[in-house]
Amino acid sequence: MKAVIWTKYGTPDGLQLKEVEKPAPKDDEILIKIHATTITAGDCEMRRLQLPLMLSFPVRLYAGLLKPKRITILGQELAGEVEQVGKNVNSFKVGDQVFGTTGFGFGAYAEYICLPGKPDDAQGTLAIKPANLTYEEAAAVPTAGFEALHFIRKADIQPGKKVLIIGGGGSIGSLSIQIARYFGAEVTGVDSTEKLDMMRSIGADYVIDYTKEDYTNAGETYDLIIDVVGRNLVSRRLKLLKQGGYYFLAYAALSHLVLGKWASMKSNKNFKIESANQNKEDLIFLTKLIEARKIKPFIDKCYPLEQIPDAHRYAEAGHKKGNIVITVDH
Prior knowledge:
By secondary structure, the protein is α/β, with parallel strands linked by helices. It is 28% helix and 26% strand.
């Protein structure tokens, strides 16, 4: 089978299309014929080995000290068709159209992958693909959907609540806008000029162009802030959070841990650096929202499998709207 092999840490040039042996499922696994995968921020961070909160060195120890050895194929999301099932698997059958995540094993930049029929917390999760989505659309849902749903549920968002999404034009941000609107919130999205119309089109009540407006001094406050950008302005953005509100930071540095401790000592603002658990129940809930046409992933560009290095470069340029999808042509 064809797969994009991760040959070195650093630039996208280390992602090379090669022929490798097609995997065979164990007794508790299913073999999935992949039709689509995605480029996530996590894939790019892993490739560069530039991970938050000083995780780069322990991950290098696990993956391979000088070059990737234990993990050689990146890709965290997929949509495809079950081609074969192990004898102990009863949760899926041959022909099922599925979507989901691969967990810490990655492996979706390929034509086929074997995944557990009943994965544990580190092995991702799978569910039947929403009937009204293409494979390309379905592949773009799980990771961003898990994160957005986790943030919004934990903050107990209800009608009348106000939500600010910083980076609303990205993958997590675009689904966060739609899910927050589903729960009845008033939603403000922050991003660059070229993403404002897109955020309006998916339901944002208000949009802010951060290149033209210093929204941190606008005097508005929010019950929930979802920040998928981070960097140097977090302490200023935290001032926009109401007492008792929740601030979720998707990509954190060590300094943000100190900021979180300080915020908890000086106020009752909830500053959180955490990720969602990837469980099947949440994936099924997202499927129901999709089939009810309450949410839908926004796809910016699609690339074929052999152009994954170009897709990584585009993702890291910072201009993408929503998701970048990889189509796998068999």
